[in-house]
Design brief:
heterodimer, A: alpha/beta, 6-stranded antiparallel β-barrel, 17 strands, 33% strand, globular, B: alpha/beta, 8-stranded parallel β-barrel, 9 helices
Chain lengths: 255, 295
């Protein structure tokens, strides 16, 4: 056991990515593997897990009390960071990355490392597309919007069905809404290559370091914070993934 | 080093696969997680503490690793009665239901939900950071006795987990014994806190919490030693155990079995690791060493 006190960082920049998503830059770079996350302490509010979008940034969408407070942070404000935690992505060979919404955050550093050949980016609408410009500079970027205001009109799975030969990729890295990820897992299963998929899961977390068990998934009891957050498709076959998750009390709910 | 005989052990009315039990509150939110620990060498497991109503727990940060320990204030998050669904597939395993409540009646109510399926209960009269629960009532011998009586009335083995945050732990142990407990678990976490210098505020969302891990091992050992003199019930040692040597030392202080919690932070296969060193073909019966340091 070692000192895991939060590192207190000062906000040095706030970037509006979309009307609902902001990137917060701080004055301390962390040594990360793409896909790793941190526990973000919003003093006086709560602590929440969040993927690193670079060694010194997190990218936040307002979904609850803590993220709402975070999106109001300004230059000079302080917050605490514990981490990096988790395993991160393990890309090999030809890499396809697929992101939905703010799920693009942990995949951006993977693409910027130059290992992603094709990147499929989805959002509800053109205005909600996040990191399209930097991604277009380092990968073959395909865009899907639910309302058709940019790129393919429909979900990212529609692009896969119409334009992508999944079996031509060795690693398929995915982060986004769970039902989107489930749709991709189903296609990998159908192609007989579930093991090539790497899915970044989200579950309610309290400790972040594999002790409390609040993020354990059925049926194997894998801990999303410590054994993940990235799991291969093989690891989550026949699991709770895409079926249910648990809230802060441990009660089951729809994903 | 001394090794122990392999094989099932009976402690406080419950038959365990070995002397090593997963402590309450650690990896116990889901049945799958408990099953994983049983499959990786735990002789028995204690669930997350279950209370009369679902609780979300304290705001974060809820757990901070320290040099030599963990500091936590989870705030007793639990799904309450819905937890039954988590453990139905483990009904043939030594799964002990940890219960918390604010009154003896609440302890009894939670026990009633599991009375047909549980192998036994463990009363959380010791959580140090939940107002109105745990150590807030577990420091009062009369309440400890009343809560124990309420649960022991179901006729199942009833363990009582004690707080070290009292002046005389022996008096609390005797109260549990008088209430009909079948074993005592000692100890729960030790009250503590940390402050962020940069933010000039406590780090835990709850401000203070409980310390576990190697830094409290000598405290737990001393409590077990005291209880061995004060009570005649079997004692289950808990607090900072992370090696086979720790288990032997705890047994010499008077423990008949041990619980392990924080050590999973360093290694989730800790039960297998300890068992590999603890048990041997020419091992001793545990009762040859339990309490031997009192001679």
């Amino acid at each position: 056991m070692h000192d895991g006190m939060p590192v207190v960082v000062t906000v040095t920049g706030v970037i509006d990515e979309t009307p609902t998503i902001r990137t917060i830059r701080f004055d301390h770079p962390f040594t990360i593997r793409p896909g790793q996350f941190c526990m973000v302490w919003v003093p006086g509010v709560d602590e929440v897990p969040m993927g690193f979008s670079s060694p010194d940034t997190i990218t936040v969408q307002r979904v609850g009390e803590a993220t709402a407070a975070l999106t109001s942070f300004a230059v000079g404000d302080k917050l605490g960071i514990r981490g990096p935690f988790g395993n991160g992505f393990s890309p090999e060979g030809r890499v396809l990355a697929i992101a939905g919404g703010v799920g693009v955050a942990p995949l951006l550093p993977l693409a910027e490392a130059g290992v992603v050949e094709t990147f499929i980016l989805g959002a509800r609408t053109a205005a909600e597309l996040t990191f399209a410009t930097p991604l277009a500079a380092c990968a073959d970027l395909r865009i899907a919007t639910d309302d058709g205001t940019a790129g393919y009109h429909g979900f990212v799975t529609g692009i896969i069905d119409e334009e992508i030969d999944l079996s031509s990729y060795d690693t398929i890295c995915v982060c986004g809404p769970e039902m989107m990820m489930k749709g991709i897992l189903d296609r990998l299963i159908a192609a007989g290559i579930a093991g090539r998929g790497q899915f970044s899961l989200h579950r309610y977390m309290k400790c972040g370091v594999g002790v409390c068990g609040s993020c354990s998934i059925d049926p194997a009891g894998l801990r999303v914070c410590k054994d993940g957050p990235v799991f291969t498709g093989d690891q989550i076959l026949d699991s709770e993934f895409g079926v249910y998750s648990r809230d802060a009390s441990g009660r089951r709910k729809r994903p | 080093m001394i090794t122990l005989q392999k094989g099932p052990v009976d402690i406080g009315g419950i038959t365990l696969h070995n002397h090593l039990i997963l402590a309450a509150g650690v990896l116990g939110t889901t049945g799958a997680s408990l099953g994983r620990m049983l499959g990786s060498g735990a002789g028995g497991v204690v669930t997350k503490s279950i209370g009369p109503e679902p609780k979300e727990g304290h705001p974060g940060p809820c757990l901070i690793p320290l040099n030599g320990g963990l500091l936590n204030a989870m705030g007793l998050p639990n799904p309450s009665r819905e937890y039954i669904d988590e453990i139905t597939h483990l009904r043939d395993d030594p799964v002990i239901i940890s219960i918390f409540g604010g009154t003896p009646q609440e302890f009894g109510e939670v026990a009633s939900w599991f009375a047909d399926t549980a192998v036994g209960f463990e009363l959380n009269l010791s959580c140090p950071h939940a107002e109105g629960y745990g150590a807030a009532i577990g420091a009062d011998p009369a309440i400890v006795r009343a809560c124990t009586e309420e649960v022991a009335a179901y006729g199942l083995p009833t363990w009582v987990k004690l707080t070290p945050n009292v002046t005389d732990i022996g008096a609390i142990g005797r109260a549990a014994e008088e209430g009909g407990a079948s074993a005592i678990v000692a100890v729960n976490t030790v009250r503590g806190m940390r402050i962020s210098i940069d933010l000039r505020r406590p780090v835990l969302g709850n401000r203070f919490g409980g310390i576990s891990g190697p830094m409290i091992f000598p405290i737990a050992l001393r409590c077990v030693y005291d209880l061995y003199n004060a009570c005649s019930l079997p004692i289950i040692g808990c607090g900072g155990i992370g090696s086979a040597e720790d288990v032997i030392e705890m047994m010499m202080a008077g423990a008949s079995a041990v619980q392990i919690g924080s050590a999973v932070y360093d290694d989730i296969t800790i039960f297998e690791q300890i068992a590999d060193s603890l048990y041997g073909d020419d091992g001793l019966p545990a009762d040859e060493i339990v309490g031997c340091a009192h001679a």
